[in-house]
């Protein structure tokens, strides 16, 4: 697996260690023991949790740069995923981004210079940038047109880049579109919703794609989401990735579909994959109030191995489709994100988009079609999402998110233990390092869970955020561990999390 930067460990060491000595020697490896005089011996050597990311959907580059400095860096995100940065078709819909016209870094979200500056500014605060790479296809336009940077395009002609021979013409269906997801050949060589399908087995096509990815790497990106990876043969993805520098992060988008011949497992050779099973399983108990522990083996059933998985509550497609819990249900969405970030499985990515009532509606834009800059307030009350169309959801500004990122740094790779269910509430421990509790019901509920955390009063990082512990008190709620049991009295639709370092 590509290396994940050691940023979380650095922060953890600094946060856990009161001594100046360790700070002077720089970022100690995360396995270093932390010995506070009043703390009991640490249970086991601490391995790092995978650094968490955030998808910033259709957010302009200038806004992302500011967001990194103001919120994402301080909150403890280690990477972010942008929308596609290259030239695409004109139009007001968000999905114009998924119809490439050229590989110039000129889009509704900003210019090449703005993109480059964003990568630098985010990197300076410890946030890596991953770009969404649309390399399976070009446009789905049947009529000639020009892209947002002025490049001419026809369905199978992109002057200076691709001509008709560079595309699959599958000949398997009447219109050359994909009709049967049970057919590997159709899915990978026919057209996804009429999008001209690149012949990714051909050397010139691979070279052009490689040059585009190299160009983005030259600006400092850490890696790529491979859009529609399921529609590119795993061997083709692997061949393209093989030409990239060692350590380039690859996140393959391969939606797991029941009974389909193409499986996410095929793509782990070239990087991680988004594990769609995870989101599907995560939200079920939130809606039903019936909790079952996930199978705590690795891999979980119908999941890739933890190291291979990128996990999420929703993304820009599922919030418009299959996701049962989205920002539209802000209370449950908070719980889902707490569970996501509290888990020991996969590399989590939080999703931040904008409110919509029309699934096609693009983010608010100016007269020329450029998406308007948008700023999130540094702090937004947990679970609050604006309801007006086009407003940014800004969940990264919830105290709970920064609080759970701190939780991850403290619990590291401590395993998740089987949980305790109490009515609609549920709690689980990350062995001897932290406990997460959620109440999916509307009524208050108390859940009591045995824990290896030392007895004491703990500050809740969901309500209290990253700096939950204040001088002598707590920023938010407090919970007690007594006689080896943690007790969480939770109001309806609330969550809590405590960890070794949130003890008062
Ligand atoms: C993806 N992952 O595999 C993206 O995450 C997803 O957002 C993309 O679909 C898709 N694959 C292609 O990159 C989006 C919209 C589609 C849109 C498509 C192309 O969800 O609705 O299709 O991008 O812009 C639209 C129209 C179609 C039309 C097509 C071609 O909705 O009706 O056939 O454009 O003109
Ligand atoms: Ca294809």
Topology:
Elements: H1 7-16, H2 20-24, E1 53-56, H3 61-75, E2 79-81, H4 112-124, E3 128-133, E4 145-146, E5 152-153, H5 184-189, H6 203-218, E6 223-226, H7 234-242, E7 249-252, E8 272-274, H8 276-288, E9 309-311, H9 330-342, E10 347-352, H10 399-411, E11 420-422, E12 425-430, E13 434-439, E14 445-450, E15 456-459, H11 461-464, E16 469-470, E17 473-474, E18 478-482, E19 485-490, E20 494-499
Parallel strand pairs: 1-2, 1-10, 2-3, 3-6, 6-7, 7-8, 8-9, 9-10
Antiparallel strand pairs: 4-5, 11-12, 12-13, 13-20, 14-19, 15-18, 16-17, 18-19
Helix pairs in contact: 1-10, 3-4, 6-7, 8-9, 9-10
Bound molecules: ligand LAG and calcium ion.
Notable traits:
binds ligand LAG; eight-stranded parallel β-barrel; binds calcium ion; 23% helix; four-stranded antiparallel sheet; 504 residues; globular; 20 strands; alpha/beta; single chain; disordered N terminus
Walk me through what this model shows.
- The chain is of the alpha/beta class and 504 residues long.
- It has eleven helices and 20 strands.
- Helix 7 links the parallel strand 6 and strand 7 (249-252).
- Helix 8 packs across helix 9 (330-342) and helix 9 packs parallel to helix 10 (399-411).
- Ligand LAG binds next to loops.
């Amino acid at each position: 697996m590509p290396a994940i930067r050691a940023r979380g460990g650095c922060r953890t060491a600094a946060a856990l260690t009161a001594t100046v000595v360790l700070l002077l020697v720089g970022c100690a490896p995360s396995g270093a023991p932390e010995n506070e005089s009043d703390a009991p011996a640490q249970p086991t050597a601490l391995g790092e949790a995978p650094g968490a990311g955030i998808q910033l959907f259709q957010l302009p580059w200038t806004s992302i740069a500011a967001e990194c400095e103001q919120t994402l860096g301080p909150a403890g995100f280690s990477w972010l995923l942008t929308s596609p940065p290259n030239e695409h078709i004109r139009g007001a819909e968000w999905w114009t981004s998924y119809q490439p016209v050229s590989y110039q870094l000129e889009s509704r979200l900003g210019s090449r210079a703005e993109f480059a500056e964003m990568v630098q500014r985010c990197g300076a605060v410890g946030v890596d940038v991953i770009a969404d790479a649309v390399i399976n296809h070009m446009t789905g336009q049947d009529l000639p047109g020009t892209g947002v940077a002025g490049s001419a395009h026809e369905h199978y002609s992109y002057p200076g880049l691709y001509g008709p021979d560079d595309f699959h013409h599958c000949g398997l269906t009447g219109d050359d579109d994909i009709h049967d997801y049970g057919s590997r050949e159709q899915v990978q060589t026919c057209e996804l919703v009429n999008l001209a399908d690149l012949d990714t087995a051909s050397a010139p096509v691979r070279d052009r794609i490689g040059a585009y990815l190299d160009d983005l790497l030259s600006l400092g990106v850490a890696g790529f989401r491979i859009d529609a990876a399921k529609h590119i043969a795993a061997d083709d993805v692997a061949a393209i990735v093989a030409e990239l520098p060692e350590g380039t992060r690859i996140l393959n988008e391969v939606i797991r579909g029941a009974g389909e011949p193409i499986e996410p497992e095929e793509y782990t050779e070239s990087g991680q994959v988004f594990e769609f099973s995870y989101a599907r399983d995560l939200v079920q108990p939130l809606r039903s109030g019936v909790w079952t522990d996930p199978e705590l083996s690795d891999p979980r059933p119908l999941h890739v191995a933890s190291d291979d998985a990128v996990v999420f509550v929703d993304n820009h497609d599922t919030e418009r489709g299959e996701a049962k819990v989205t920002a539209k249900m802000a209370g449950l969405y908070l719980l889902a994100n707490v569970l996501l970030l509290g888990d020991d499985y996969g590399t989590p990515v939080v999703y931040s988009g904008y409110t919509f009532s029309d699934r096609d509606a693009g983010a608010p834009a100016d007269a020329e079609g450029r998406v308007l800059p948008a700023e999130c307030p540094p702090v937004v009350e947990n679970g609050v999402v604006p309801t007006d169309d086009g407003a940014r959801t800004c969940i990264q500004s919830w105290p709970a998110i920064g609080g759970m990122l701190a939780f991850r740094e403290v619990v590291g790779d401590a395993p998740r233990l089987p949980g305790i269910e109490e009515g609609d509430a549920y709690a689980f421990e990350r062995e001897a390092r932290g406990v997460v509790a959620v109440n999916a019901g509307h009524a208050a509920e108390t859940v009591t869970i045995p824990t290896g955390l030392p007895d004491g009063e703990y500050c809740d990082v969901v309500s209290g955020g990253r700096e939950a512990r204040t001088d002598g008190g707590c920023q938010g709620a407090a919970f007690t561990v007594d006689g080896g049991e943690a007790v969480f009295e939770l109001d309806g639709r609330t969550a809590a999390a405590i960890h070794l370092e949130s003890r008062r």
